[in-house]
Amino acid sequence: MKGKLTSLHRSTDTGSNFGDSIADIMTMEPGEMTAEVVDATQYGTEHDWKESDYGLRDGGEWNFTIRYRENQTDVEALIDAFHNGTKEYVQVQFPAPISRGVDFRCLVTKVGFATPKEGQIDRTLTLKVDGPVNEGDLV
């Protein structure tokens, strides 16, 4: 249904405001958050079991196939970030009944070639999360 698609949004500031959708997400493989494990074993205790603590966390990589209109140029900022080595702030918005968003700072690590069809463009992107992942209700 039109208007019910999961959408990709970009912030022009440091991730505090996300504007209108820059593309509809046709397919998505969300990254998995992981945590390193650090050995915290204290030798000389009464047991010989290994103990661990949390290390650094990682937000993973997100793979997208997006679709946008030919005159919609906001996606080009993500392509420019790939070429210029800059970081972007993006948000994935899930429509009702979920009505939630996931946002993060990222590096654009893969850019597929644009495939035009019937006034729209399909393109694949891979975004590497850089820092924390934020989840929240859409307002």
Question: Your description of this structure?
Answer:
With 139 residues, the protein is mainly beta. The protein is 7% helix and 53% strand. It has one helix and ten strands; from the N terminus they run E-E-E-E-E-H-E-E-E-E-E. The chain has a six-stranded antiparallel barrel with strand order 1-2-5-9-7-6. A two-stranded antiparallel ribbon has the order 3-4. The longest helix is centred in the middle third of the chain and has 10 residues. The chain is elongated.
What's the short story on this structure?
This protein is mainly beta and 139 residues long. It has one helix spanning 75-84; strands spanning 7-11, 21-29, 34-39, 52-58, 61-69, 87-94, 100-111, 115-117, 120-129, 134-137.
Defining traits:
10 strands, two-stranded antiparallel ribbon, mainly beta, single chain, 139 residues
Summarize the topology.
Elements: E1 7-11, E2 21-29, E3 34-39, E4 52-58, E5 61-69, H1 75-84, E6 87-94, E7 100-111, E8 115-117, E9 120-129, E10 134-137
Antiparallel strand pairs: 1-2, 1-6, 2-5, 3-4, 5-9, 6-7, 7-9, 7-10, 8-9
Order of helices and strands: EEEEEHEEEEE
Taking strands numbered 1, 2, ... along the chain, how are they ordered across the largest sheet? Answer: 1-2-5-9-7-6
Structural class by sheet pairing and helices:
mainly beta
| C-alpha termini separation | 21 Å
Give the C-alpha Rg: 19 Å
Return residue spans where pLDDT drops below 50 for at least 5 consecutive residues.
none
Q: Indicate the percent of residues in helices.
A: under 10%
Taking the sheet with the most strands, its summary is: 6 strands, antiparallel, barrel
Say how many strands there are.
10
